[in-house]
Amino acid sequence: MTTSATSRPRTIFARATPPGRGAVAIIRLSGPDTDAALGALTPGRALPEPRLASLRRIADPVSGRVIDEALVLRFTAPASYTGEDAAELQLHGGPAVVAAVIEVLGRLPGLRPAEAGEFTRRAVLSGRMDLTAAEAVADLIAADTAGQAAQALAQLGGRLGRQVEGWRARLIRAAAMIEAEIDFPDEEVPDGIALTVAPEIEAIATEFRACLADGRSGERLREGVVVAVVGRPNAGKSSLVNALAGREIAIVTDRPGTTRDAIEVALDLDGVALTLIDTAGLRDTDDPIEQEGVRRARARAAEADLRLVVIDPETTDPAQAMAEAGVLPGDPIVFTRRDRLAGDAADRLRAKVAGDHPMVLVSCVTGAGMGDLAAALAGLAAGLTGGGEGAMITRARHRAALDQAAMALDAAAAGLTHPLPMLELVAEDLRRACDALGRITGRIDVEHLLDAIFREFCIGK
């Protein structure tokens, strides 16, 4: 929520710890009336010194009833998370205590409950962080794996923001050179100075292209690698998913066509989030419901990062099963019923698998080969995410903005190499590139982006 330049922003408050019962519950405040609120809650005591925890009795200012004995932390602007006066009340975590303090805060003048992500939103608006750092806060809160957390921390530390601002500063300098030749043609500006920026523009464009050619590794790490488990009915897909998950996720029967709707299960494989999708068996059928399940299975397989093709070697030709599944290079092939196969089965089956595909033999009955399969999936996922090392782009909006900047630079470079360069058009192309970069960090169109970004946040952040 934003305020006009003439209105006084209201002070917001929210619980920052999860709801429910716990040892400690934290309530955050931020805004110009924070000190007044602390004074009302702790009557008869001077305000705590900034950034020093102080044990205080929290009381209802109307009735005088003591609600709790809590630690109070006070932060003065601009040295706070939001850049405003702020405070934390570290209460005992019982529901009655928290509800009573929230009720009192809601009665104090100038205070209101915070909206989702409003503390971080205020931090962005006050200049305490840029949009990429704010997104990293949300990603760190949502991280399920070590890899996701590490990537979010790197972005919070400015890995993307610093790079983008560095590119933007270089483009601004290049644009200034061109503007100088446009605006001061008769002054002491060296002839052809605009052409001297062409190598810098090309160098930045090359860096853009290298960043964009990352195979979406950052987005995949953040969102999780999607693996569609595909194959014919009764190949053992659902049993395999259950075995990898370590619990019964999918129904397993001997009846073909049991799985009709896609079933998803999230896994953490060596720090990389992976989503397995158990899909309907691929076959021709007259059952309209199963037909829809097969259609959806093919669609999910086409959209997935990997297709894990499950084949029963006793009943299915591998080449035909792979063709039906629409495999791509690198997709893993899993042969089930390992406990029923002869000792030389691996060599015989490998000879039937054309192309570059990891191959694993497993038994969902004995568990044989499941460790090998988990290791193979972890290796493939790490390859798709780059192991979480050095990824700059972590969201679709970053990629779209950088792609727009790259196209603007290509246009600028083409303009400079034209026999009769139109410097005004080149300058406009550079401005478009700078604006696109500014949208990544929030220098441009920040209000438009804030609503979409902070919709993902929890209330107390």
From TrEMBL:
GO cellular component, one term: cytoplasm
Keyword Nucleotide-binding on entry: yes
Cofactor comment: Binds 1 potassium ion per subunit.
GO biological process annotation, one example: tRNA wobble uridine modification
Residues given in the record as (6S)-5-formyl-5,6,7,8-tetrahydrofolate binding sites: R28, E88, R128, K461
Binding site for Mg(2+): S238, T259
GO molecular function, one term: GTP binding
UniProt: GTP binding residues: 234-239, 253-259, 278-281
Stated role: Exhibits a very high intrinsic GTPase hydrolysis rate. Involved in the addition of a carboxymethylaminomethyl (cmnm) group at the wobble position (U34) of certain tRNAs, forming tRNA-cmnm(5)s(2)U34.
Record note on quaternary structure: Homodimer. Heterotetramer of two MnmE and two MnmG subunits.
Annotated family: Belongs to the TRAFAC class TrmE-Era-EngA-EngB-Septin-like GTPase superfamily. TrmE GTPase family.
PANTHER family, per the entry: TRNA MODIFICATION GTPASE GTPBP3, TRNA MODIFICATION GTPASE GTPBP3, MITOCHONDRIAL
Name under which the protein is recorded: tRNA modification GTPase MnmE
Taxonomic lineage of the native organism: Bacteria, Pseudomonadati, Pseudomonadota, Alphaproteobacteria, Geminicoccales
Gene assigned in the entry: mnmE
